[in-house]
Amino acid sequence: MNIAVLFILFFFVISVLIGIQAKKGKEMNLEQWSVGGRGMGALLIFLLSAGEMYTTFTFLGASGSAYGEGGSIFSIVTYGCLATVISYWTFPAIWRYAKKHQLVSQSDFFVKKYQSPYLGVLVAVIGVIACTCYLVLQLKGLGYIVFATSYGAISSTAAIWVGAIGVTIFVIVSGIHGSARTAILKDILILGIIVFLGVYFPMHYYGGLQPMYEAIEQAKPNFTILPDQGMSVSWYISTVVLSSIGFYMWPHGFSPIYAASSEKALRKNSILMPLYQLILLFAFFVGFAAILQTPGLKGSDADLILLQLSKQDFDPWFVGLIGGTGVLAALVPCSMLLMSISTLLSKNIYSVFTPSATEKQIAKLVKYMVPLISLIGIYLTFQGGNTLFSLALIAYNFITQLAPAFFASLMKNNFVTKHGAFAGIITGGVIVSIMELGNIKIGQLFPYLPQAIKDLNVGIIALFVNIVVLVVVSLMTKNFTYTHQDTDDLETSTLEQKI
Amino acid sequence: MKKIYWLGIIPFLGFVVGALFTNKVTPYVLGMPFFHFWIVLWSVLTTGIMWVIYLLDPANEKGDSR
Asked: Which of B39, B59, B63 minimises the CB distance to A77?
């Protein structure tokens, strides 16, 4: 047993205890459990949204991609900033609507806006698959981080089991309150550690930031900016536009919005969030620092670069601190994902097909589902190989394709019908999935187009088709659906329920 | 739509249109390649712009938040 193991265990136990403690003095009905009784102030909302952003990716993929891909990694900071600009207007609108109609899941929003439980099922199925894949990714990350920072003393299998059990316990007990409380500790630690490492490594190896960049420039000219082809400027712009629109379409992204105590808390959130994106910058610095120090790493090995450099240069206690922070970076998003998945499965899928289920039964079911979903997550973490990767790619692409129907629903006079929404989401999602999975490039289909168009992110083309289909189908179907902006009851005619 | 909301377009212009002209390594600013500096600069400016919008937005006059 080394000191690093002690640190990792310490932070794990502390975070689970904080998570359980968060329940204190609260009556845990479904609304308290999944959206904190809509009573969280600006600070907790900020930490919850940051909780989704700064995950194990901050320790693994962020530095790994800077190391492997160079300048294109900066698109993440850009769309993060722009997404929060958009959120200044969308979040308060979502919040008002959710409060008025007592919504608890992202799928609820679509159900109510389009008066269609079946559109809700579609959105929920996409959400469940995407969130489960994301959960698996976080558990895998947790395994990598703990195995590396414990110097191999804790196997990644053990870490994943113990971590998943811990998070399951505090999610069942405290719901979103647990996520919010643990997020406080997590964000302080991540901020401190990543900024420190991002400053330390360039100083230590090169004597400063500029000498580091100059050395990289000499060895690999133009590596730190966007290349002329591939991930070029036009790729960057299309990716940034696509991702800033799709950024907050994730089911667990809706929970902090619903949990807010006021519109103002949400608007405050969008002031600080762009600046907060810069934490990633320091993770990139670590990746850049590693380029000339440990060259030649590929794929998942590159993702371990931050941990590897840290182990080379620091004492075990500090490595343990990084490991403990990594554990928290996995547990907070995992907790929110578990809640979202179980709410979607119970409320937006199960109850639609089991109309006899009472609200009380659903509220109970939501909690009983959590351990089951954890087990499925663990199973997929160990068993899911390339199939899982493909599934994740499809699901993530589908999530972005929810955006047109979502933004349309915010309009005062929304002309989009549920049929239009349905058709748009499916068409856009199928197009992008086929192109991504088949690795079909625009250049292959249309070799004579200018390079700038060939480099466009295929998601943006799918999004465009999505919008066209959405508009056309909506105009075609507007006569046989009601305009139901203000009706509170779901219509019951059998024809309407078909879709 | 309130006039002050138009300020929200500026970050998009800065990040997206700006990328057409700033994808360069030199000059180094604050030790970073110019492209990196540009994105850092706009993250900071975006926070500033959102702050101004927040302060001038009449919607924030009523109601409190903790």
From this structure: B39
Q: ipTM score here?
A: 0.90
Distance CA A320, CA A445 (A): 50
DSSP structure string for A132-147: HHHHHHHHHHHHHHHH
- Shortest distance, CA B36 to any CA of chain A (angstroms): 7
Cα A483–chain centre separation = 33
Instruction: Give the minimum alpha-carbon distance from B3 to chain A in angstroms, rounded to a whole number.
Output: 14
Helical ranges in A357-417 per DSSP H:
359-383, 386-400, 403-409
Nearest residue to A39 via CA among A55, A27, A56, A50: A27
What are A212-239's pLDDT values in tens digits?
999 998 888 888 888 877 788 888 888 8
Beta-sheet strands, E only, within A49-143: none
Counting every residue, how long is chain A? 499
Please check the confidence at residue A375 and state whether its pLDDT lies above 90.
yes
CA separation for the pair A62, A72 (Å, rounded): 11
Residue pair B23/A232 in contact by the 8 Å Cβ criterion: no
Sign of the torsion formed by the C-alpha atoms of A116, A119, A123 and A128: positive
> Is omega for the bond preceding B27 within 30 degrees of 0, making it cis?
yes
Contacts of A272 in chain B (CB under 8 A): 47
Q: Are A344 and A251 a contacting pair, CB within 8 Å?
A: yes
- Of A235, A280, A66, nearest to B16 by C-alpha is A235
Instruction: Report the candidate in A16, A56, A47, A51 with the shortest Cα–Cα distance to residue A163.
Output: A16
Contacts of residue B39 in chain A, CB cutoff 8 Å?
74, 77-78
Q: Are A347 and A104 in contact (CB under 8 A)?
A: yes
Unique residue bearing structure tokens 């922070």: A325
- B66 vs A84, A261, A273: nearest CB: A261
> Closest partner residue to B54 among A41, A210, A267, by Cβ?
A267
How far apart are the C-alpha atoms of A157 and A447, rounded to whole Å?
47
CA–CA separation, A173 vs B8, rounded Å?
A: 41
Question: Over the range B32-66, which residues count as b (16 or more CB within 10 Å of their CB) and which as e?
Answer: bbbbbbbbbbbbebbbebbbebbeeeeebeeeebe
**Confidence grade of residue A168 (pLDDT, cut at 50, 70, 90):** very high
